[in-house]
Amino acid sequence: MYATKREKEVLFKLCEGFSSKEIGATLFISQHTVETHKRNLMFKLQARNTVHLAILAERHGLLSKTSLSETAPSH
């Protein structure tokens, strides 16, 4: 399953317990854009809700250490 870099960033923040508003502020995008990324991920993984999205993302390896380092901002 393919997820964009930004979708993965949103996904990681969701799994860390951040709200859409907090994710938007952290990633400098609007809450609406966060919801769009979340909706796209839910469609791609056929998730019924956010909890289901997190479970399916784990099963598909989207939360692996490799995925985390691929989307980590470089400083």
Alpha carbon gap, first and last residue: 28 Å
Structural class: mainly alpha
CATH superfamily: Winged helix-like DNA-binding domain superfamily/Winged helix DNA-binding domain
Q: Tell me about the biggest sheet?
A: none
Total discrete domains: 1
Question: How would the blueprint of this fold be written?
Answer:
Elements: H1 5-15, H2 20-27, H3 31-45, H4 50-59, H5 65-71
Helix pairs in contact: 1-3, 1-5, 2-3, 3-4
How would you explain this protein's 3D organization?
This protein is mainly alpha-helical and 75 residues long. The protein has one domain: Arc Repressor Mutant, subunit A. It is built from five helices and no strands. The chain starts with a helix and ends with a helix. 17% of the residues are buried.
Characteristics:
75 residues, mainly alpha, Arc Repressor Mutant, subunit A, globular
Brief overview, please?
With 75 residues, this protein is an all-alpha fold. The protein has helices at residues 5-15, 20-27, 31-45, 50-59, 65-71. It has one domain: Orthogonal Bundle (Arc Repressor Mutant, subunit A).
